[in-house]
Structure formats: C-alpha cells, structure tokens
Amino acid sequence: MADVRLDKVSKSYGAAEVLKDIDLSIADGEFVVFVGPSGCGKSTLLRIIAGLEDLSGGDLLIGGRRVNDASPKERGIAMVFQSYALYPHRTVRGNMEFGLKLSRMSRAEIDARVMRAARMLQIEPLLERRPSQLSGGQRQRVAIGRAIVREPAVFLFDEPLSNLDAALRVDTRREIADLHRQLKTTMIYVTHDQVEAMTLADKIVVLHDGHVQQMGSPLDLYNAPANVFVAGFIGSPRMNLIAAEAGAERIETGVLGSLPLPEGGVPAGPLTLGIRPENLVLGAAGGAEAQVVLIEHLGDEILVELKLADGQQAVAKIAPGLSLTVGETVTVAPGDGPVHLFDAAGRRIAGPAAKS
Amino acid sequence: MTRLPRPTHGLILLLIIALAVASAFPLVWMVLSSFKTPEESMQTPPVWIPGSLNLSAYGAVSEVIQAGRSLWNSAVIATVTTTGILVTSLMAGFAFAKYRFRGRNALFAVMIATMFLPPIVTLIPLYRMVSAMGFSASLVGVILPNLANAFGIFLMRQFIAGVPDDLIDAARVDGASELRVVFSVVAPAIVPAIAALALFAFVYHWNTYLWPLTVLQGASEDYPIVLSLGRLLSYNRGAMNTPLVMAGATMAVLPPLVLFVFLQRFFVDSMVSAAVKG
C-alpha cells in the first residue's frame, strides 16, 4: 500500500516534450484513471511510474520515497499490459511464479500466493496450461494474477481491456472494480475509453498534449468540465460545443436562440456554449430551426444528428416516440439541464447557466 | 495449405527425390566403402555392396591416428565455440535489437561489414594476435577468436527484434535483471533461431580445417578429427587405403549428423506450432 506523488514530472525525447510539469498526487488505495486521446502521454506517464522510462525532470515518490532512479522491482509495483505479455514458454503457474522466484521467496510461500490468486481469479483449472492454449479473457486474468501474486503497493494497468471483445470488456471491467474493492491497493489505470474511466475511477486525470487538463471525480468532470477539451472528451455522445457571443444582457448563439447570462455575468465577447446531447429538446415551440442529418435508433433512446442554421453540427439524445425522417426540419432548443460556458481560450466560466 | 494440381505435385516430388538421392549418394558410398576390403574398394566395375560387414578398417583407423583423442578435440572445439557464439550473439543481438544508444546503427554496419571479409584475409593477422597472446599450438588458440561472430549477432538481432517489448518490460517489472531477461525470457521465445544458429556453428567449427591447421602448428595430439583424416590419406605413402579413409570419414561425420537429427525436431516443432497458432 502506498501513495504516489508526481512533482513537476516532465519527459522529452530529444526536442519533443511529451510530458510537461505534471503535478499529481494519488492517495493510498485510490483508483486513478489516466485518460486521453492517443499520443497524449498517458502511457508514457504510466511507464515512468513503473520505472520503464526515465523522467527528464521532476520527482516521483512512491510511499513517500523518491524513486526517480530505482529499478522497477525496487518500486513495489506490478503492471498489467495491453498485450498481456505472458511468457509464452511458461505455464500459467510458471508465469505467476516467475517474479516470486526471482525474489527468492520460499517454495511454500510461492505456492500459497499462486493458489490464493488463482482462486480469486478462478483460473485454478488453467494453472498447468500454456498461454497459447488460453482465450483472450483467460490470458488477461493470468496477467492480472501475475500482478496480484507480487502483492504490490501499486497496481499499474496499461489499457488492459483494449484487446478484448465488447462483452468480455464489460465483464473484466467489473472484475477489476471488484478486485480493487477486495485488495484496496492503489491502482493506476490508463485507457483511451472514457466509459472505462467513468465507471472505474475514484479520480480521473484527463491528459492532452502532455498536460493535465483536469483531475477530479468522474461526476465532477462530467458536471463541470474545466475546459473545452474535457467537455468534448468526457461523455458519449460528446457534448455539443457551439460558438456564441456574450452581450450585455443575454448570450446570443444565433443558432439556438439566446440564453440569460449566468449569475455574476460574463465578460462580453466570444465564448463557447456546451450543451450535452440529452439537454437538447426537439420540436419545442420557439426553438431554432435545424435539419435532421442522421437518426440512430438505440432502442431506449434515439441519437439525432442535426445541421444547425449556420452549418454547425449538433447531436441530440431524445426519448423514443418522436417520429423523424432524415432531411426534415425540426426546431431545437436547450432543455432545462445545465449549460456550460467557456471563454475564448476554452476555459470554463464558473457556474452553469440555466435556461429561463 | 493450397493443393497443387496433381501433375505439378508429382513433378516436384520427383525433383525432390532426385535431389535427395544426389546429396545422399556420397554419404552412402562413404559408409558402404568403409566396410569393404581394400580389394573390393579397388575393383572396376565398382562393387556396391561389400561382401561382408568387414569392420577391420575401423580398427585400423585407431592404429594410424588417435581417433578418440581427435574426436574429443573436435567435440571440445565445436561445443565450446558454439556455446560461446550463442551466448555472445544473444547478448549483442539483444543490445542491437532493443537498446537505443548513440552509434548503434554505425556499429551494427561495421559489424555486418566484417561478414564480407573472406576468412583467408584475416587468417595471418589473427594468427599473429593469437600467437602474441601465447595461445599458438593450443586448443585455446583455436577456440578464442571464434567465440563471437557477426553472422550470429546479426541473426539473433533479427529474431529478437520480433520479440514484443511488452514481454521484456513485463520481465523487468517482475524483477528480472537484463541478463535474466535475455536468457530466461527472450531466448526461450526464439528457440528455433537459436537451434538453427547452434547447428550451423557446430557443423562449421566441427569441419573447419584451415584455422586449426594454422594455429596448432603440427601439435597433432590437439588435432581435431578433420585434420587427423589428412594423415589417413597420406598413410601408405600414396597408395590410398580407401576403406581406412572412409571409416575415418564416417566417424568424423557421425557426431554432427546425430546433432542434426536431435535439433531437427525444434525446426519442425516450431513450424507446426506457428501454423496452429496462426
């Protein structure tokens, strides 16, 4: 068990700066998810914590100890890889034992730990098989088992579900959540999938361009995105971001009508309005006109892609029942839910404005 | 697997059989001749099958040369050299394949370039170096310069490049040292390539003639079997005793042949498993 602290951590490859002054503090037992688009530096950050990459600047502390120059094994971490990375010539048991044998643990202790982990992951019948004889889901369990037996202070997961099919991904996601509840160990998890991030995390760290864009609980990020990037990244389908202009009394969008200024007001000038798809109302009287471009029936809800008056695209998520056809013109207006405002630089302006 | 049309299939089969017969013929002739009497071996038209299983040539070999000692020397040279090549090739190949360091490509290019030097060019300089170190006329001198070779490093680098980085990182996280990574994780993943290199190296250094001849300087008690065979040829002062030479040659061929049969299953195994895994 250990907390992890990153203090102005940076990483460059030659002239290319991949991570810039990352400050981060992860509490003991916390489940933290690094999320971001590919190339944002999230995997590099995880590999730095693992000790597989050197950091170019700053400090890394695990359990209060500075481990900048410590080898992976000295850091008390275990890692699960996207590709599973099981040793192909060893049995499942051999894979799980490898690290323990290297640390010269007694035979009895090794056997006890392997059995305990195998039971927890329900892979006891597979112990004598080789990785090539296992399915993708089973391999992933073995990879997790190999991490568990080491009883690390921190678990690192690098996109562990990416190679699994959709159904298995949901099951395994739940198992990882269960695992965290049972072990109560600090876990750091990297993914590009915001659904995984939302469902697993105590705390989400959104990375983009080598910077931390925002960190906080899943609902904090969903309800109060710090900037346009986070607003667009968290939530599916993504938030509609519409250009608007703050006037003296109201915010004019041109394409969705006007909205009242939030309490405290906003500086006059251009801004970006963020409205989640579920907060767009179709067919309401007094709404702006928009053309239906695409209709996706999901059963319990309908996603309607709209082309607004000035050509901007927007997506509305509505309840089934409304009959629409592609090409038809409908009225669209913001609902009663929260509306997000971002200034010209893309930063959040405090307090969601509610419609009135 | 795609099935070839029958006539093509048959034609290819015929060709393979012809090639097999052509390459096996000298070997079979050698073994058969080793059992002949000197008279049988001289007759025209040639006698194919010896009249009786005459083992006297094998006995005679040991009267002319120290066959056991020579075979042992060959085994020492080939085994130690092969082991050395495997170890150095794996380590250097790993470094070239997986480490990023300044000058890596230049160093690799220089090393590859040495593969294009005919061995004869380096023979004298190499001998002078070995001799200056005080290893001439000894097995150490025969073995030492061959413990690393460019082809082995090249081959291992190519195969190790195909080993996933995650696998190596997983071993590091598990607490493996770099040496442990090379020998416990990387090596088992490329067993077929290692078996191939081992076979090439063993056969090459079992059969090598010029280098031991140069280094050993007539110290015949250290001669490997191929050098000793030469003494069988010159025995009898020109009147060649064919069964004697063939018996010696058969003894010289046997160990690499056995090794091949043993190592062969690694190639076959690996091809089958690759096909199944897809």
UniProtKB/TrEMBL annotation, chain A:
It comes from the Bacteria. SUPFAM superfamilies: MOP-like, P-loop containing nucleoside triphosphate hydrolases. GO terms for cellular component: ATP-binding cassette (ABC) transporter complex, substrate-binding subunit-containing; maltose transport complex. SMART domains: AAA. Keywords: ATP-binding, Nucleotide-binding, Transport. Residues 4-234 form the ABC transporter domain. GO terms for molecular function: ABC-type maltose transporter activity; ATP binding; ATP hydrolysis activity. This is sn-glycerol-3-phosphate ABC transporter ATP-binding protein UgpC. The gene is ugpC. InterPro entries: AAA+_ATPase, ABC_transporter-like_ATP-bd, ABC_transporter-like_CS, ABC_transpr_MalK-like, ABC_transpr_MalK/UgpC-like, Mo/tungstate-bd_C_term_dom, NA-bd_OB-fold, P-loop_NTPase. Belongs to the ABC transporter superfamily. NCBIfam families: PRK11650.1.
Automatic annotation (TrEMBL), chain B:
InterPro entries: MetI-like, MetI-like_sf. CDD domains: TM_PBP2. Gene3D superfamilies: MetI-like. Keywords: Cell inner membrane, Cell membrane, Membrane, Transmembrane, Transmembrane helix, Transport. It is found in: Cell inner membrane; Cell membrane. The keyword RNA-binding does not apply. The complex is composed of two ATP-binding proteins (UgpC), two transmembrane proteins (UgpA and UgpE) and a solute-binding protein (UgpB). The chain crosses the membrane at residues 12-32, 71-94, 106-127, 139-160, 181-206, 244-263. One of its GO terms (biological process) is transmembrane transport. This is sn-glycerol-3-phosphate transport system permease protein UgpE. It is a multi-pass membrane protein. It comes from the Bacteria. Part of the ABC transporter complex UgpBAEC involved in sn-glycerol-3-phosphate (G3P) import. Probably responsible for the translocation of the substrate across the membrane. Belongs to the binding-protein-dependent transport system permease family. GO terms for cellular component: plasma membrane. Residues 71-263 form the ABC transmembrane type-1 domain. The keyword Cytoplasm does not apply. Its main location: membrane.
